[in-house]
Fold:
Amino acid sequence: MRVMSQVAMVMNLDKCIGCHTCSVTCKQTWTNRSGVEYAWFNNVETKPGVGYPRRYEDQERWKGGWVLDRKGRPALRSGSRLKRLSSLFANPGLPSIDDYAEPVTYDYDTLVSAPAGQDVPVARPRSALTGRPVAVTWGANWEDGLGGTPEHGAGDPNLGGGLAEKVRFEFEQTFMFHLPRLCEHCLNPACVAACPSGALYKRMEDGIVLVDQDRCRGWRMCVSACPYKKVYANHATGKAEKCTFCFPRIEAGQPTICSETCVGRLRYLGVVLYDADRVGRAAAVPEETDLLDAQRDLFLDPYDPEVAAAARADGIAEDWIDAARRSPVRALISEYRVALPLHPEYRTLPMVWYVPPLSPVLDAVGAAGGSADDPDHVFAAVTRLRIPLEYLANLFTAGDTDAVAGVLMKLTALRSHMRARSLGDPADRGLLDAVGLTPEQAEDLHRLLAVARYADRFVVPTAHREAATEDQGAAGFRCPVDAGQGPTPLGMPTRRRTDEGAP
Amino acid sequence: MNHHASPPAVQLLLWVAVPYVCLTVCVAGHIWRYRRDRFGWTCRTTQLLEHRWLRLGSPLFHLGAFAVIAGHVVGLAVPVSWTEAAGIGEHAYHTTAVALGSVAGAAMVAGLGMLCARRLLSARVRRTTDRSDRVLFPVLFATVLLGVSATAVHNLAGGGYDYRATISVWFRGLFTLQPHPDAMASAPLLFQLHILSAFLLFAVWPFTRLVHVWSAPVGYLRRPALVYRSRKEG
Structure:
């Protein structure tokens, strides 16, 4: 056993209202620069929808993530190392910028400098790549709130088989939810394995996956290898960039900017301990539907004295072990088992997990003429949700509908129990018993999911300064405002930055 | 321009001073660049912005270039006596060199042509073209075209020029610090221009995207799949 620690995230999708505050604050913090105008380290997608970049989940096309080779070992879907080196000159799996959307800016100056005339001046869109006027025809969340879904919806790679027909056929009974996405900071990161330069690395202390900007040579294999398409090529610097999990904030014990500013307070951050020795085996389980449990098994129980002793032996500080015990992420993933990973079938063992959305269930019980207190009625309704179980299963459990249904039933039981409690109804243990929760656990979970106080959502221990060198963490980071080339018209990409102030 | 009659001073300048200055700039430039600008050390790919031309042009150019460079190494570094000792006669050597070289050269020219065309014709790519590219692409293109023309004029159309008896001797002399400018002075003009343009290319090399050549990631084949780093390593 080799104990490693990681700061991981869970998002409670029921509370996401799709306001994009996380995306906007992330952009202002990290990607408000030329070269990455098109990149959203954090974006919010409407599901069902084709996502950003378009159809990124279609791994037959983009060849992201891992598959098992003939001997049952995990191998990158994009092929062998030799094959990757031979595609350095033209990477067949690299999306074009049109798959993301052409970045635009606007002629804002016209609004104030236009001569007096009959018409109100307008700010026309211009391409940030060419400076020419351009029609805005796509964006990172073009389908916000199901806009354009009749046209594009069937392009969602999760709507395989008859699911697309079913969804389209029942359009008046339509469903949607928002899915905020950022880098998964995987335990088995495909981008790291694909990088020919060894510029991408996973930090041992907190599991954050970063790009060493001084070692990246722009071979762009990480972009195509990441099945979530969360590594971006900066077209001004020619280097890869990705979500940093706001490591300067995390090191200071603060939540990431997307978590801090989340209006719905749906993000949780905390430490999990895992056994690094078993990562390879977990990624290699033959059945895709077993990957969820294989990854859960990797997580270690910090209350177990043996685990704590092993963690200490592996150099994990006492306050981090304590933080792992208080971790809301550990509680939601391992203790209450209501959080699920996004696309476990990619075999990257992602570390941003989701509590699946449940919204319409109690209404559905009433609409079906059932009683919201009767476990049979409630659980039957779960299987008839507007959000088809199969769809959620394709996103979160590699198609295992039972696993998703189990989580939704747990959440339903929790809701019914808390409603009965707050209305002063007689306590009915039936629902809770059926999902294996005690009333104490239910209230604890309720406090975590519904009350969701700041101190409960974010348990981030500070990094240990004594373990840091002076140039700390700067490995993957340069100050974004340090572009140093004076004002650029129309937000045009500045050319490659010469590094005047480098040490 | 008739170098047979040019004074020794000009020969010394062209075939001793210029090469050594260019090579010095090349070496010193690389050291300076690596120490000052590792952040800018990249191939600066534009595949994100344009991929249709690149998909064909880039592999053509790079694979052609590999073959051309290999041919130059053999032609310039290996003395005639070695190949003759290996039982390869002058005629056999030249026939093979011209045949393989023509294919590689054609691939390189076609690929570079496509890459330059997309750089000029695609507005997105053109916008990313910086000062170093404006120097690099003309010098590179000139070097390649002059090399191909020299081969075409003297070895395909002409009777065959034995550069191994003159140019190769001069080239090896540069590195053994015993330069023979006289060996170069008698070479045909196209070869002379090709060589001067090549040395100019070496001189601008460290200040352009060509530095990515030295980063060819061969170590990738041997390293573990996952890279972990401690914060201590910075």
Q: What stands out?
A: The mean pLDDT of chain A is 87. Chain A is about 35% helix and 15% strand. The CA atoms of residues 62 and 93 of chain A lie 5 Å apart. Residues 1-101+138-465 of chain A form a domain with the Alpha-Beta Plaits fold (CATH 3.30.70.20).
